[in-house]
Amino acid sequence: QTGYLRRNPGALVRNVRTPIASRITRYLTPGAIALALDTVTNRLADSPAAERRRERDRFLLIAFAHTGARLNEIVSANMGSIYTEGGGRWWIDVLGKGNKPRRLPVPDDMLAAFRRYREAYGLPPQTARVDRTPLVLSSRSREITRLSDEAASEALKGVFAEAASRAARDGDSDTAATLRHASAHWLRHSMLTNHANNGVQLKTLQDTAGHANIATTAAYLHKTDNERHDEIIASVTGN
């Protein structure tokens, strides 16, 4: 049409459709995550095994919510993967897809949960980088045994189910319905979405998530949609 070509080869292509980018719907609000955290923190522990399970599940919830790591990245790590190089900055080393290593920031409450979790297993709160003890431990075995990916996933689903029941009792049916379907991967989506909405740079989120393509990370940006929604609703309600 512009005239650069004598003939248009695109005219021979019929029914061209542009693929629609998928929306990130597996999302937990900060309030839903806080409810799940409060639920597991106050879980009754009437035996050493129950206490170990509570502290491990609490650590898992905080770790996934803060790092946005994939399930296997946390489960396959070792205790020594959490470390500091000084300056008050703590990190966790994980191995992502394609065996690509990356390190993720560890905030203070995750570090506190990690130390509390270790103490529940009779381990000193501090560890060293040479520590090859599995990061995610079974609560049933008296020996040091790594928890499987499936078992770790089920542990978090159990936390979400408990929180869903609590939300239902409080009359919050929307949060209850969301939590009933939540999984560890929802925490990854939620962490990235929340940081994107708070203005964290897209490249920073891409490096943190370990996405090969920045377009994958861009799917977590909902701020424009949220603002559009709020403007329309405010116009309707006159607020």
> What is the 3D shape?
globular
Q: What value does the Rg take, in angstroms?
A: 22 Å
Strand content: 5-15%
User: From N to C, what is the helix and strand string?
Assistant: HHHEEEHHHHHHH
Structure description:
It contains 10 helices and 3 strands, in the order αααβββααααααα. The N and C termini lie far apart (48 Å). The model has no long low-confidence stretch (mean pLDDT 87). With 239 residues, the protein is mainly α. α1 crosses α5, α2 runs antiparallel to α4 and α2 runs parallel beside α7.
Features:
mainly alpha, three-stranded antiparallel sheet, 10 helices, single chain
Layout of helices and strands, plus pairs?
Elements: H1 30-41, H2 48-67, H3 71-75, E1 82-84, E2 90-95, E3 101-106, H4 108-120, H5 149-169, H6 173-181, H7 184-197, H8 202-209, H9 214-218, H10 223-237
Antiparallel strand pairs: 1-2, 2-3
Short description:
By secondary structure, the protein is mostly helical. The chain is 51% helix and 6% strand.
